[in-house]
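can u do me a favor
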């Protein structure tokens, strides 16, 4: 039997702490329960390491920012430590999650500033002593992982498959004899983590869900996503939807066959990584599953979305994904395409660039028209993160988001504030009236003329 956090234990924990703590409050974007909470592993689930272009991740990002960011929660749950997670963020176009569960569920942090949940770590400190784990692990077939992978409540090794079972049995018995109560997790046919019994990706998620529920904000649905052994724990959380991405490893597929085959809420996707997550959203009917990225004819797409789903956030995401494709020449140099991008700009509106220069939107649109294919054949990607929408008048919205550009190995980001106005006459649309950009700390350095929006 799995030792799920007993309600009494957790309520004691929550009482002692602080579901009102500064850390937890820091992700208080939503005033009510999340429509959906997506909890995803990173390596080979959210991030496809076999896809250098990151296309499936970028598709999911666009879908999330256009249709989910405003009322849903994004949670990353990874085996990586904070330091290793930061490295991944520098390499891949990851969105900013609301909650980050790291080091195989031994560390939880909230909000963009990643404020740690200290109570969770205190809670794990039971029948645990990492010195003893290190001491008894001096076995010929166990190799310590790097320093950055070792955490206060996680001791990690590498072990060949053929010695894995022996390692697990030996460690369990010796550690029990030494008075510890541990959980041993084997992933990717090589990683072996020793954690306190109370830890793990599933336990950490159950804790966060309890915390949200105490706050009257239990998500309406939860979708967990994973590919390897340490994710099995996620799929064991009661009542969640789950997706094993198509590229899930044997160990997780076996776990699924033995433990969850009959559970219709858990599927094995036919799509890889982030596309598998989107497939699950579609399969379970959890919401819109067509990413604005990849749509070619926007007029058609708007109709498909029946307009009511077309929000200012969609306009922002659509605009920048078209912008990327125009610069890359991924779409034809046609009037209808440039119109799709610039047709919603208010000609007398203004854009203020991060380097202080100001242009009318009409001039910026002309510059973009000239710039067709300016990034052709280059590594060039644009993505939007942290879209927030505030309605400030009957037909006016104040948008704020981070716009990232990746170009030939370098990334830059600016914080954009934009004013959008709804136009009811003619084809309904959100019109860009004003844009103001400032560099996100330390990322700005651009050749003027190539950064047009
Ligand atoms: C990540 C961590 C590693 C851990 C593995 C499996 O790769 O960096 O320390 O062993 O996940 O949980
Ligand atoms: Mg993984």
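np, heres the sequence
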């Amino acid at each position: 039997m799995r030792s799920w956090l007993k309600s009494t234990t957790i309520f004691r924990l929550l009482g002692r702490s602080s579901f009102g703590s500064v850390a937890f409050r820091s992700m208080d974007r939503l005033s009510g329960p999340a429509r959906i909470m997506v909890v995803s592993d990173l390596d080979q689930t959210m991030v496809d390491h076999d896809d250098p272009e990151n296309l499936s991740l970028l598709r999911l990002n666009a879908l999330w920012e256009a249709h989910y960011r405003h009322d849903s929660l994004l949670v990353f749950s990874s085996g990586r430590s904070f330091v290793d997670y930061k490295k991944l963020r520098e390499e891949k176009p990851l969105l900013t999650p609301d909650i980050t569960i790291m080091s195989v569920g031994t560390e939880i942090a909230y909000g963009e500033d990643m404020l740690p949940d200290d109570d969770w770590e205190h809670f794990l400190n039971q029948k645990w002593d990492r010195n003893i784990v290190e001491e008894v692990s001096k076995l010929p077939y166990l190799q310590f992982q790097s320093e950055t992978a070792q955490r206060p409540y996680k001791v990690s090794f590498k072990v060949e498959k053929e010695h894995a079972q022996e390692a697990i049995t030996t460690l369990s018995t010796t550690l029990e004899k030494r008075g510890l109560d541990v959980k041993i997790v084997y992933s990717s046919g090589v990683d072996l983590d020793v954690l306190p019994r109370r830890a793990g990706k599933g336990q950490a998620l159950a804790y966060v869900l309890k915390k949200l529920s105490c706050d009257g904000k239990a998500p309406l649905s939860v979708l967990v996503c994973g590919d390897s052994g340490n994710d099995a724990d996620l799929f064991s959380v009661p009542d969640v939807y789950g997706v094993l991405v198509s590229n899930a490893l044997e160990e997780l597929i076996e776990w699924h066959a033995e433990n969850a085959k009959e559970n219709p809420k858990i599927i094995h996707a036919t799509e890889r990584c982030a596309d598998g997550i989107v497939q699950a959203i579609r399969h379970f009917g959890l919401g819109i599953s067509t990413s604005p990225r990849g749509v070619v004819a926007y007029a058609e797409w708007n109709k498909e979305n029946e307009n009511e789903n077309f929000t200012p956030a969609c306009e922002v995401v659509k605009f920048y994904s078209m912008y990327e494709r125009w610069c890359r020449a991924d779409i034809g140099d046609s009037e209808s395409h440039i119109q799709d991008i610039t047709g919603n700009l208010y000609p007398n509106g203004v854009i203020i660039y991060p380097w202080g220069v100001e242009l009318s939107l009409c001039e910026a649109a002309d510059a973009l028209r000239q710039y067709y294919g300016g990034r052709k054949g280059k590594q060039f990607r644009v993505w939007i993160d942290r879209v927030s929408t505030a309605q400030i008048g009957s037909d006016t919205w104040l948008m704020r988001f981070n716009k990232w550009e990746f170009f030939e190995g370098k990334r830059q980001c600016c914080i954009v504030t934009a004013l959008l106005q709804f136009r009811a006459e003619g084809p309904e649309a959100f019109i860009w009236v004003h844009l103001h950009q400032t560099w996100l700390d330390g990322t700005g350095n651009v050749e003027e003329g190539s950064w047009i929006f």
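The pocket of alpha-D-glucopyranose (ligand 1) is lined by residues 79-80, 84, 104, 145, 149, 156, 185, 187, 191, 193, 230 (CB under 6 Å). hope that helps!!
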